[in-house]
Amino acid sequence: MRMAFAALTTRGRAFLAAGTTCAVCAAVLGERDLLRAGILVLALPVVTMLLVNRARYRISCVRSIQPSRVPVGHPAKVTLHLENTGRLPSNLLMLEDEIPYALGTRPRFIVDQVGARWQRSIDYTLRSDVRGRYPVGPLTVRVSDAFGLIEINRSFSVRQNLLITPAVDPLPNGQLHSEWAGTGENRPRAFAAAGTEDVTIREYRHGDDLRRVHWRSTARVGELMVRREEQPWQSRVTLLLDSREAAHRGSGPASSFEWMVSATASIGVHLAEQGFALRLVSESGDDHAGHWHERGTGRVGDTDDLLEELAIIQASPRKTLDLPRTGDEMSGVIVALVGLLSPLDLEALRRLAQGAGAGYAIVADVAEWMRDTPYGQSESKAQTRRTVAELRTHGWQVAVATPQDRVGTLWAQLINPMRGGNRGLPPHVQELEEV
Question: Which residue in 34, 56, 307, 415 has a CA-CA distance of 20 to 30 Å to 286?
Answer without folding.
Answer: 415
